[in-house]
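Many introductory courses stop at the sequence. We go one step further.
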Amino acid sequence: TDGDLRRIIEKSPGDMALAMNGPIARSMTRNPKTTTADALAASALKLMEDNGISVLPVVDANGRLVGIVHLHDLIRSGLA
C-alpha cells in the first residue's frame, strides 16, 4: 500500500536507494484491511476512517485483488 511505501522511506530518510533496495516482504502489510465488491461504499469509508487508511483493496471471494477504493473517490462521490 502507499502507507507501506511511506514507512519504508521513513526508515531511511535521505537515502532512497537504501530504503528501496530491500525485500518488500520486510515492510509490507501482510494482512491488509480489504473490502468486497458487494460491500456498501459507506462501510468501506468507515473501515478506512477507523483504520486511518486512504486506499482499500477490493477482493473477490478467493481473496484475489479485483480493484481499489481510494478515499478521494469516496469524497468526490459525495459520500464523505
